[in-house]
Design brief:
Blueprint: H1 6-14, E1 22-25, H2 32-43, E2 46-51, H3 68-78, E3 89-94, H4 100-104, H5 106-112, E4 116-121, E5 141-144, H6 150-156, H7 161-173, H8 179-195, H9 199-208, H10 211-232, H11 238-246, H12 248-253, H13 270-282, E6 286-292, E7 303-312, H14 315-320, H15 326-332, H16 339-353, E8 358-362, E9 368-369, E10 371-375, E11 378-384, H17 392-398, H18 401-404, E12 408-413, E13 418-420, E14 423-427
Parallel strand pairs: 1-4, 1-5, 2-3, 3-4, 6-8, 11-12, 12-14
Antiparallel strand pairs: 6-7, 8-9, 10-11, 13-14
Helix pairs in contact: 9-10, 10-11, 11-13
Amino acid sequence: MLRRKITDKLLAWKHQAGRLPLIIKGCRQCGKTMAVLDFARENYEHVVYINFFENTGYEAIFKDSLEVDFLTMMMSAQIQGAVFEAGNTVIILDEIQECPEARTALKFFKLDGRYDVIATGSLLGVSGYGKPKSIPVGHETMLTMVPMDFEEFLWANGIDEKLIGILKDCLDKEKPVPEALHKKMRLLLLQYVVVGGMPAVVQNFVDHHNMAQVLQMQRDIVMSYEDDMMKYADDRDKVRIRKCFRSIPKQLAKENKKFQYSVIERGARSKNYNSCLEWIDDAGILRHCYNLSVPELPLDGNSEEDTFKIYMADTGLFISMLEDGTQADILQGNLLGYKGAIYENLIADIFGKMGRKLYYFHKNSGLEIDFVIRYKGKATLIEVKASNGNAKSLKQVLSNPDRYHVSQAIKLADVQVGRTGQVLTLPLYMSAFLTSV
């Protein structure tokens, strides 16, 4: 069983007095169902499971009265062995977006209070899809789940808390990582780049280490995402959304990675495609990274809404969108110019999965900082290098404190831990532990 961080959040929710029905939202196949079922079986005597996607007949339970006794009676009629015991039963409503009336019913479960309810939903943030007539405001709470992050990937591959503790201690004390562990982490990072964090893919990799199977599973997931675009998006946007999605590798291939609508197709304009990008973002498939007018706190207050880059939310799915042979090239270090895009997407994956909003800093003069984050209470420049290259833009910003008001930076590269003045140099894998804000 894969260990997931969301389990701690589920336990915290269960221990809250007066807890509300919980909705877990996230992109398809990020592990919502498995995580919730594992948690429920460990923490409740009785689990009543309803999957609206697999069995559309369950929708009929919620078509008439939403009074709790009526609903539980209907559930027990359709679900063999369902037991409803106050305080000891959890009801799981899987893929709740397929039955909007079930989401409306969350209010009645909260007011009744006898049973805990956990719902999961894909595409819940997508415009116009799965919305109930009445959202139970004040009677539900929501958590966002993402694919496995790099630390969860390490757990799956046998890296225990003791070894992770050594890494964090090296970061805190700015000292080199023991060489054997450093070598192991460099290899695991390359594997994470190509495998990513979709749980079924990670489990297959751990069990078999067959990269052909990994790639096929990833491409099946990508295809299912495209199927969702064609099935659930507004008719006028279906084709445009898919074109936006398919343009991501080309967008990242440019020297200036600012998103350009003309890369989607000649003559494309933002007014026709902006909502399409938002649809993919809301589905949890990609992330926006916004340019800053100045690299200062608050980052969100200084971001430019119309100037942005985009990255795939999961690095493994991104690699699967490239041509055959890319996996082997990454694992063997045989990449040329495109490796910059791959490692930028890797860091976007790592930062995004830890809940960071993504920002960068670009000036028309050519100055560009890959990412800017809040770290230890300060605006911090992040430069990403596939090797230990020169970071001219980073030095330029730091050398002008009166203009840019930035005093610290981190260079992520295939290096050991070290420091030169204001610049902390870290191996790329250490980005997973830059959690302090």
